[in-house]
From TrEMBL:
Designated name of the protein: Delta-aminolevulinic acid dehydratase
The reaction(s) this protein catalyses: 2 5-aminolevulinate = porphobilinogen + 2 H2O + H(+)
Pfam families per the UniProt record, alphabetical: ALAD
Gene that this polypeptide is encoded by: hemB_3
A GO biological-process term: protoporphyrinogen IX biosynthetic process
Keyword Lyase set for record: yes
Similarity-based family: Belongs to the ALAD family.
Pathway membership, UniProt: Porphyrin-containing compound metabolism; protoporphyrin-IX biosynthesis; coproporphyrinogen-III from 5-aminolevulinate: step 1/4
Length: 59
């Protein structure tokens, strides 16, 4: 339950700070939360999944 609240809250903060869209990494774990964020905030939402190796190269 906390993950749902935190995700919606942080997404709303990003939108209020001027974000035009949301890019969410590791979206495969919580599709229900992502659906609610998209429905409640009515903003373009992009979800992607990176493998552990690809993530290690980026960070």
């Amino acid at each position: 339950m906390f993950i749902q609240y935190e995700c919606r809250h942080e997404s709303a903060v990003d939108i209020s700070e001027g974000a035009d869209a949301l890019m969410i990494k590791t979206g495969m774990f919580c599709p229900d939360v992502l659906y609610r964020v998209r429905q409640e905030l009515r903003v373009s939402t992009f979800v992607y999944q990176a493998s552990a190796g690809a993530d290690a190269m980026v960070t």
